[in-house]
Amino acid sequence: MEHEHHNEHHKNRKYHDMDEKLPEVQINITYNYGIVTIKVRDKENNAVALTETHEKRMHLVITSADLETFLHVHPIENASGDFEVVLELPPGSYLAFADINPVRMTYVIEPITITVGKVTDTPSIDWEMLAERDSATKDVEGKTVTFHHPKLTAGKSAALSFDLNGETPLPYLGALGHVVVLDEQGEKFIHVHPVSEDKPVFEAQFPSPGFYKLWVEFKFSDAGVLAFPFVMKVADRN
């Protein structure tokens, strides 16, 4: 995965060097007694050095398997070189994505499943119904955001813009906002930032046709950081 600090990160892009093959990063994520632990290791099981990106060395995104729950947190390194964050997760199945920038190593963002308690079945999502019923305007804790975008086509960059209905967001983690997108399989991970410092407009490219769920995060002076969810359908390029 190739980190472009103001552009997109997704699972099938990677760090690379034209002159040499870089070693790969191994990620392990576990959940025990309300603590998520992330081990970032090389093949010799040594801790890996991480470069800070948007004010943090690790951005951890966790979603429930039905994509209803969305968490964007920032684990802290402990004395053993692992990263930890305290989270009380209800019983269920979750997908975790560690968004990191390792020093001179190859890394691909891939989903890691976390199971909390006993999970009896895998939730089924009717994406067609969700897309048809999804509103372009969402209200969260008294804040309203309206999502605008052109027809979305696989492989083609698109401008994703958001109207905050008169609100002015505060800078959050070095940007005016953050957009995280997952495909319907929960495999393709996209994380993009605004194309400018003063407008909530993001540019993203969707690698394949199908349904995607998007969360846009803004920080408000009186409400803190809020995430607004939207469902999109991306057409085939043909």
Describe, in plain words, how this protein is organized in 3D.
The structure is a single chain. The protein is an all-beta fold and 238 residues long. It contains one helix and 16 strands. The strands form four sheets. Strands 1-2-6-5 form a four-stranded antiparallel beta sheet, with no helix packed on it. Strands 4-3-7-8 form a four-stranded antiparallel beta sheet, with no helix packed on it. The longest helix has 7 residues, at 127-133. The radius of gyration is 18 Å and the shape is globular. Mean pLDDT is 89; it is low at 1-19.
Strand order of the largest sheet: 1-2-6-5
Determine the structural class based on helices, strands and strand pairing. Answer: mainly beta
Number of strands: 16
Portion in beta strands: 35-45%
* Number of helical stretches of at least 4 residues: 1
Distance between the termini: 27 Å
Radius of gyration: 18 Å
Strand count, sense and barrel status of the largest sheet are: 4 strands, antiparallel
Element string (H = helix, E = strand): EEEEEEEEHEEEEEEEE
Unreliable segments of 5+ consecutive residues: 1-19
Give the proportion of residues in helices. Answer: under 10%
Any idea what the shape is?
globular
Q: Can you give the mean pLDDT?
A: 89
Features:
4-stranded antiparallel sheet, 238 residues, 1 helix, single chain, 16 strands, disordered N terminus, globular, 42% strand, mainly beta
Write the layout of secondary structure elements.
Elements: E1 26-32, E2 35-41, E3 58-64, E4 70-73, E5 76-77, E6 83-86, E7 92-100, E8 112-116, H1 127-133, E9 137-140, E10 143-148, E11 157-163, E12 178-183, E13 189-192, E14 201-205, E15 210-220, E16 224-234
Antiparallel strand pairs: 1-2, 2-6, 3-4, 3-7, 5-6, 7-8, 9-10, 10-11, 11-14, 12-13, 12-15, 15-16
